[in-house]
Amino acid sequence: MESLNSLKNVLYVDRIYRALQTIRHRQYTEKHQNTIDLRTSELRLFSQNGEDGVLDAILRGLSNSNTFFVEFGVGDGWSCNTRMLAEIFDWSGLYLEVNADDHQLLKQRYLHSKKVQCINTSVTPNNINTLFEENHVPNEFGVLSIDIDGQDYWVWEALDDKYQPDIVVIEFNSFKNPHELIVEQVGLPSELPLSLTWGASLGAVKSLGEKKGYQLVHIEMAGVNAFFVKKNLLKEKGLTFMGITERSPNFGLRGKNHSDSVLYGDKPRTDRTETNVL
Question: Hey, what's the torsion of the CAs at 205, 206, 209, 215, to 10 degrees?
Fold first, then answer.
């Protein structure tokens, strides 16, 4: 019965995304091209949720981004935010994955690719700039995707301002009060099951984005990833993205938090130390 319910949920979610594509097509033909509705742009090809469609819509609006991506916390590459860019749009990019087994599968996926690098390493605030430099990440590039289940905020904060991705996709904890600037303490290891206090609040990542010159344009329906675009690009191109910029926990579109016992079978921990970043 449990497997049947899981299958029903997958089919249900896919039906939602197919319907959104129909809506998006209609709205794109009716609206001026400088106004893009991200609310109905969500689509899942390889992403966990609707991130593929949101990235596609933003990139179409920007039109001339440097076709290079960086993603870490990518696992084996089966489901991630930039696989569409690598395999459909033929972008160059860098994958950083700490798990050795996942890295081997990831490396096998791009075995003969001359455009995609796959590095087996952890990403921390202390080594992020060295990793970018050693792997020849351009100063200006298209997409940075951060998903390391906890230290996401601190890694983005530590990234040198010389690295200027057009778009930043970052995971946050939608269970935290979005109006508070709360982040787990720097240096904590990634742990599963996730605690209720893992990662950063939306308010914290939004504040950090603004300090770095980025505007929050959308949060996908599951309340997992926030999308930021460089403010100067929005102004330069006269772009307006219509998106949702606050979400409640809706993991798997089931109204659940990442840490819910329904997901992991364990009682969520609340022992992950937090700090205020005001």
Answer: 150
